[in-house]
């Protein structure tokens, strides 16, 4: 996709995060798996071994473990963010370590789609005078280039 066709936005902080205390954007993490399915072995190992470690490392994230009976759908890690975004990640045939890495990645994201940033800086109150640069307050003789004088 070209630069004009891809969505873009200015760089902003989610909910002005960082102005006060830091608020993690991941609200809830739900692990849906079948207790008997073969492709959910990594999910079962994650629950037995790493779920408590993840809960200790991220005390502000609620972790739900929901085993469903029977050969249901593939195991899923569902992340719900404060802005209402719900992201489902398929964890079929993944190991416990891979699921832990995925859960940590989801915990560190904001819930917004990954898109192109227009500029690395942005302000809501632009300056009337313009941006500062090194020659702003220097004499104009340094910035104006006239014809060079030849020695006679």
TrEMBL record:
InterPro entries: Ribosomal_mL43, Ribosomal_mL43/mS25/NADH_DH, Thioredoxin-like_sf. One of its GO terms (cellular component) is mitochondrial large ribosomal subunit. Residues 35-110 form the Ribosomal protein/NADH dehydrogenase domain. Pfam families: L51_S25_CI-B8 (PF05047). The keyword RNA-binding does not apply. Gene3D superfamilies: Glutaredoxin. It comes from the Eukaryota. Residues 123-152 are annotated as: Disordered. GO terms for biological process: mitochondrial translation. Its main location: mitochondrion. Keywords: Mitochondrion, Ribonucleoprotein, Ribosomal protein. It is found in: Mitochondrion. One of its GO terms (molecular function) is structural constituent of ribosome. Belongs to the mitochondrion-specific ribosomal protein mL43 family. This is Large ribosomal subunit protein mL43. It comes from Chloebia gouldiae.
